[in-house]
Structure prediction request, 119 residues.
Amino acid sequence: MERVEWLKKMRTMAEALYDNLAPTWWVKYGLNPDQPHRQCIEKFLGQLHEHSFILDAACGSGLYDGMLVEAGHSVLGIDQSGGGLTRAREHFPQDCFPGLHYTKMWACRRWIFRRHLTE
Prediction:
């Protein structure tokens, strides 16, 4: 099997796995990061300028994004799992979190380019 074919197969398998896990993610792992992760995010936030634009690559269901937006930053969450992004949008709806956007990984480059042109 050629590398390109193998990579496509692995990506398809990973997407299926995460799409399968997504509906129960919040039930299993809760809505709030555990203490070590919370401390890491707080340390990260302490190093940012006000109103920073953050790329949350492989955001999954957006576990940390609420903390980032509540601290006054804008966040673009990208992931290859449509199921994870659906859960993230359910917990962080656009009307309540206007500084938070989610998109599939393949669409990210176009979105960032368009956003920079319009700001």
About this structure: Confidence is low (pLDDT under 50) at residues 111-119. The chain has six helices and three strands. The radius of gyration is 15 Å.
